[in-house]
Amino acid sequence: MRKHLNPGTRERARAMRAEMPKAEGLLWWKLRQSNRNSYHFRRQVPLRGYFADFAEHSAKLIIELDGDQHSQADHREHDRIRDQALSEEGYLVLRFANLEVLRDLDQVVESILRAVAQRRPPPQNSRGLEPPQF
User: What domains sit in the chain, N to C, each tagged with a CATH number?
Assistant: First the structure.
């Protein structure tokens, strides 16, 4: 059952999608390619009062890209509380630094797809064939 969002949540998510940092844009470009293989990644997903950078709901996987501010103590504590709330919903949170995405995008995507594969059965197309591996 779908929960109703607070007023303004959809608009804020749309605005965040329109103003993605470079690392998020690159990762989204790659994740959209994997959506063709029966994965369904979404971006700037409202969840439990937070916005997840990316989510694959069938695998209960959240992907967060962190800028430099996440190394500060107050951000680390906020991230810890947020990750705990999401894990209570059954989600696994993967965190990557923006710089990591910019330096080695393919390795980051491989890590994400491996986590998806471990958390759900492999998707099958209409003929029962498994999709190609990345």
Answer: 21-119 (3.40.960.10)
